[in-house]
């Protein structure tokens, strides 16, 4: 199993009606994009989030979180939330909306204007 399909379905249900929504297999899991920018994703049973560096620092103080460190060095704008940290719909919605808020601060990528891929 490359990623938890149930968690991916839950994330998708939060994002799929948004303009500019797309999804793409990435990082050995699935990534969800808004306006061409990766917003969040699912890798194995973990929720992957793209946030401001400050939001990552704050988020890492919460239980069931850890830095995203594919290369052995933590990524300043990325973090993981394990299954226990996203098991409730309320918690998942809060995490995903935090990532959406960050992505909306970025200018849409031109190729994203054509819609989901």
Account of the 3D structure:
- The chain is an alpha+beta fold and 117 residues long.
- The chain has a single domain, classed as Alpha-Beta Complex (Aspartate Aminotransferase, domain 1).
- Helix content is 28%, strand content 26%.
- Strand 3 and strand 4 form a beta hairpin.
- Helix 1 crosses helix 3.
Layout: helices, strands, pairs:
Elements: H1 5-15, E1 21-26, E2 29-34, E3 37-43, E4 46-50, H2 53-59, E5 65-67, E6 78-81, H3 89-103
The CATH architecture term is: Alpha-Beta Complex
Distance between the termini: 23 Å
Q: Any idea of the CATH topology? A: Aspartate Aminotransferase, domain 1
**H-E order:** HEEEEHEEH
Q: In oligomeric terms, what are we looking at?
A: single chain
* Count of distinct strands: 6
Strand content: 25-35%
Count of distinct structural domains: 1
Unreliable stretches covering 5 or more consecutive residues: 112-117
Radius of gyration: 13 Å
State mean pLDDT (0 to 100 scale): 92
**Strand count, sense and closure of the main sheet?**
6 strands, antiparallel
Number of helices: 3
Portion in helices: 25-40%
Q: Report the CATH C-level class.
A: Alpha Beta
Structural class computed from helices and strand pairing: alpha+beta
Strands ordered across the widest β-sheet: 1-2-3-4-6-5
Query: What shape does the CA trace take?
Result: globular
Supply the key terms.
Aspartate Aminotransferase, domain 1, globular, 3 helices, alpha+beta, single chain, six-stranded antiparallel beta sheet, 117 residues
